[in-house]
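Late entry, 2'-deoxycytidine-5'-monophosphate complex.
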Amino acid sequence: MSDDIIAIDGPAGSGKSTVARAVAQQLGWSFLDTGAMYRAVTCEVLARGIDLHDDAAVGALADTLTLTTTPRVSVNGRDVQDEIRTDTINVAVSVVAANPLVRQAMVSRQREWAKSQPLGTVVEGRDIATVVFPDATLKVFLTASVEERARRRGDESPASIARRDNADSTRVTSPLRQAHDALFIDTTDRAAQDVAGEIVQCLKSRRSS
Ligand code: DC
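Prediction complete; structure with ligand written out below:
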């Protein structure tokens, strides 16, 4: 079991998932997409017809769910890999992710999961370096121009991305923020493998110093 964590945060379309996967692959570590967890919870809330704004009911449900993110995203054994990327979920997930009870349930799962990995873990999301793993081995904050982020999220409109960014950054519980000690990388016009290489180099040079 390993305590090594690379925590990667940033807004939608900043390249987090692609870069985090590439870093994990280069290091032979595990990878966790925490956005997929919030999306999977949202799928189940909608499937059960629970009011999205009923924090207590949504929080109680989040506590009981069985979630997987690899090899495919599933909730209670139901495959939601495709459903989590639909417009319905893009809109509803901001409400579910702002629920403090849901966040509490997801954060403890994320910590448990990372603890059980044999080598290190690369975890990406919005609050990973600030709340979930404040003592991460390396913290990274990715961003990119609005145009580039909209291009990367081809299936989501720029207006939807802007709305979600605003909701994620202004919510009361664990808003998207750059940790003060995070490595800041603008990924605009850069290949994911190149950015991943920079992160791996940074990890190696910190370890050798
Ligand atoms: O990374 P993503 O777009 O799949 O994330 C989906 C939503 O989940 C996003 O609007 C913000 C939320 N989220 C969060 O609040 N905290 C995380 N650690 C990851 C995602």
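The CA atoms of residues 56 and 91 lie 20 Å apart. Will revisit in the morning.
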